[in-house]
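seq:
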Amino acid sequence: MNRRRFLLISAVAVLPGRALAETEWTGMAFGAEARMILRGDRQMAAAALQALPRLIADIEAEFSLHRPSALTQLNAQGTLAPSPMFRAVLDLSARVHGATGGAFDPTVQPLWQALATGADPDAAHRAIGWQRVGLGPAVTLAPGQALTFNGVAQGFGTDAARALLLRLGYRQALASLGEHAAIGGPFRLGLEDPEAGYLGTRSLTGGAIATSSPRATLVGGQPHILHPHGLPPLWSTVSVEADSAALADALSTACVFLDPAQVQAARARLPGTGRITLVDFAGNLSTV
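struct:
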């Protein structure tokens, strides 16, 4: 799964004491660098490092657009009996779609494909519309529709990695499969904008954070995060802190199109959402 944007947060753990061994793991997940900071005994670390590749493969088997997956099957056939994992992402997508007035919309995939290939975008625009997706026992797409979960799957994977570490007994760890989720802490995260550069730090204890920068990558000359109605992004970078990395991921994607009042309203509609940092195209930073 190619990244929908560059990840523009770096992490350094701030951990009291050195009684437990600290293990750092780096690898690949969803086509981007993944990172774990694990503080526990070596047996725990061995179990985590053995389980992580399987976890990543399982999530990619659900949500990848670049290898056979449940998502590519749905896009090709127009119908799918979703797994519990797939259903959870559908349900979260529906919640964030509603809370953001439709700014978060996984049906933008045909438009993304049209921009990437130089095809006429008119047919793609006609296919867009989350309200046309059937969410019964089977998920069904209207003719011409296709979904992308690039705005939520990395956060979902990060939450799954954190859950795995909790099951293994970790009480101090930082998981990053594209976004960041902490067990314990605090962990110090450096916030960076693709135009303005380094802007400061955030401290993460037991929560999650996700960041979206629409102009970090261009598709067909346009920002790669797409509004379903073609509206331009209002922010250069949006960083969302929340209980869940999946929620933070989806909301940061949508908030690049929302003005401050709309950001505040969306935050109020989504329990578990914390501070939202907005960076405009002049490099000015504000928080909600």
